[in-house]
Design brief:
Layout: H1 4-33, H2 47-77, H3 98-109, H4 116-143, E1 147-150, H5 157-168, H6 173-181, E2 194-200, E3 205-211, H7 219-294, E4 296-303, H8 304-309, E5 330-333, E6 339-342, E7 354-358, E8 368-372, E9 379-383, H9 386-389, E10 393-399
Parallel strand pairs: 4-10
Antiparallel strand pairs: 1-2, 2-3, 4-5, 6-9, 7-10, 8-9
Helix pairs in contact: 1-2, 1-3, 1-4, 5-6
Length: 400
Amino acid sequence: MESRKPASVAGAAMCIASVLAMMFVAGSIGCSRESDLGFSKSTPATPEELLAELKTHQEKIDKATEGILLRINEFNQTRKPGERTLQFAEIFSQDFTDQQKAVLNQMIAEEKDVSYKSILQQIVSDRDTIQGLQEKVMHLEQSLPDSFVIAKKGDRHHDLAMNYLINDSKIDEAKAKTLLAGVDQTDELLAGNKVWFFYDSARDTFRTYVTQGEAGQTPLAVRRALRRKLITERDQAVSQRDEAAAARDEAVRTVNDLQQVKAGLESDIAVLRQNKASLEASVERLSSDLAFRQNSLFYHAANVRELKDQGVLTTVLKRVQDVKPVNFDTALDLRQTNTITLAPAAFGLDRIVKVRMLPNIFQEGRDFKIETSEDSGVAKIVILDPDLFKGKEVLFAVGG
């Protein structure tokens, strides 16, 4: 615990020295800019002349410091509860550590003198205190039965302790390992640390510990810093893990959404393919029907008497009168054949004697011909010019 006091006092002294330097420099700069401060343009000829001149400016620095403190105090008194106030150390916010600013603000809060002269006196007093504490620490260290070594860069506490037990205490390696297994060791050695050892042969006990020594930090501060670093790294790792997990979950959700979209698209594609097949079949059927209609002769064959009764033919000249009752529902595909065969039984006749093609726009013998058979009674219409009859509708009046 004694070793901590010099460090604290040293920090305070460094703070005071920093304030002194800042005040002196600020005062000097201010003096160089003001023509009425009394600096001579030429360099003083003797130390006495320079000292007299600087004492004058020391008083001005002290007055300026008092003025600054008064100004800050007046400002802070006008602030309402909860509003921000100003501290003297904030003037040096970019040049002071938090510890140095805290020391300076504490001095002002305790109404201590922070003038140039007072700070110099404080530095001298603190230096004497530090020296006295260092002497006490040295005396205490010398009175301890423990021995120590100064750690160098790369040294390990375990290796140093093993060397002490084996070489200084003359203990075999196996027992040294057993003794070391029962004591705390640190892996955070800094160059300049004092590593202490003591083996009590009477009680067969061993202790080892580390003090700051000439290192810039205490072992406790190093451990805390490493602990903070480990905690920070752990928190960062946890944060990265959580972010990665969130990204993974988001990716899984995205994949699931895409799979659903894919399934929907595949279903749509299947439906479209079915529709395509259906449309292609319809197109093929329509194309076939169109080709059939474009290349076929559509006709209606009936007995002359029946056609007259229906009003299709006139009774006298047997001309076409009205074809509304007629459906031209029989077709001859002229791409395959050019002959129509009419059987007498289909018209209620024993045999067919005559067949007329109506209307009379086609010429028999040139465009078509009609053949009848006395033996079978069958009549045949042979299309001689198929292109002429493609897509046409005709009526065959059959007589016996």
